[in-house]
Amino acid sequence: MFWAGTLWQLYHFTKDEKYKQTAQNIEKQLGTALADFRGLDHDVGFMWTLTAVADYKETKSAESWTRVLHAATILAGRYNPKGHFIKAWNPENGLYRNGWVIIDSLMNAPLLYWAQAETHDPKFGYISKKHVNKIMKYNLRADGSVNHICVFDPKNGKLLETKGGQGYGVGSCWSRGEAWAIYGSALNYKYAKKMKYLNAANYFLANIQQTGFIPLVDFRASKEPVEIDTTVAVIAASGLLEIAKYVPEAEHDLYYDSAIKILKALSAKYVELDPEKMGILTHGSVNYVAGHADEKPIIYGDYFYAEALLKVLGKKLQVW
Questions:
Q1: For residue 241, what are the contacts with CB-CB under 8 A and spacing of at least 6?
Q2: Which residues form the signal peptide (predicted)?
């Protein structure tokens, strides 16, 4: 999906048909996942925003429109009306996880606003707002840091516990979760206009200024070993550029200039331009593993790097 999203951004920028054709082939292959259904989870937002939404915005394809609405309906079906949240993952190894909510899902919620706009059915927007409000109350802490995972009682919505997830541990702050909070809250602010949605950015900026604008995998991990995640930087940079569109003029430069500093820091040290090598953005980390850093190119790092650069150029395709 992120590869297809990159291709759509490149097609929008260049109008080169090969990018569109390859992206559409990927979208068609994803159709088998829609048909099977069982393996789909909260990430249908990512999967079809970066494929079918992009396709529909560029080509007005009726098939893409149907795929997006199908995906949005699946996402809405994961909503717990008593707990006011969209559950994250599916059952695994006997663990049902019906009350699990993750910070990443802020990026999936805009798919529901798309469905509301296209169908004029307010249920989609209602579900999205309730879910985002739940995340803002429990996954986002008062100081702007985040819990990656919150576990709620699926029968009444009461918070049972928090989990470290892909971060250092319980009570820590997984930096990519922080980046999802920055970008996801900015996207949802576009629809809900609640300023509290933008609180994560300042916590993030305070931390990356201490490490040359290259984020650690977890902001509350032990000082050693030092583990970084460049994917965090580009997700956050694109999110900060989004925030800059909505804040008062006096605050615009803080977020815009910070995004530029992040992109410059990455481009100076962590970009691989050899076409024979895998990936563009190096030193991405899937999660925190103390003493076993596995820093490598990751496809979503390349997507958000391209998206952020095109935003700076004023040439991006607005898919979210």
A1: 255, 256, 259, 308, 311, 312
A2: none
- Omega before 225 cis (within 30°)? yes
**What is the per-residue pLDDT across 62-83, written as a single tens digit (0 to 9) for each?**
999 999 999 999 999 999 999 9
User: pLDDT tens digit string along 274-295?
Assistant: 988 889 999 999 988 866 667 7
Structure tokens at 230: 């460049």
pTM of the entire predicted model: 0.95
Do 181 and 146 form a contact (C-beta atoms < 8 A)? yes
CB 1 within 8 A of CB 9: no
DSSP codes, the chain: -HHHHHHHHHHHHH--HHHHHHHHHHHHHHHHHHHH-TT--TTHHHHHIIIIIHHHHHH--HHHHHHHHHHHHHHHTTEETTTTEE--SPPBTTB--TTEEEGGGGGTTHHHHHHHHHH--HHHHHHHHHHHHHHHHHTB-TTS-B-SEEEE-TTT--EEEEE-TTSSSTT--BHHHHHHHHHHHHHHHHHH--GGGGTHHHHHHHHHGGGTT--BSBTTS-SSS--B-HHHHHHHHHHHHHHTTTS-HHHHHHHHHHHHHHHHHHHHHSB---TTSS-SB--B-SS--TT----B--HHHHHHHHHHHHHHHT------
Q: Which residues are catalytic?
A: 43, 104
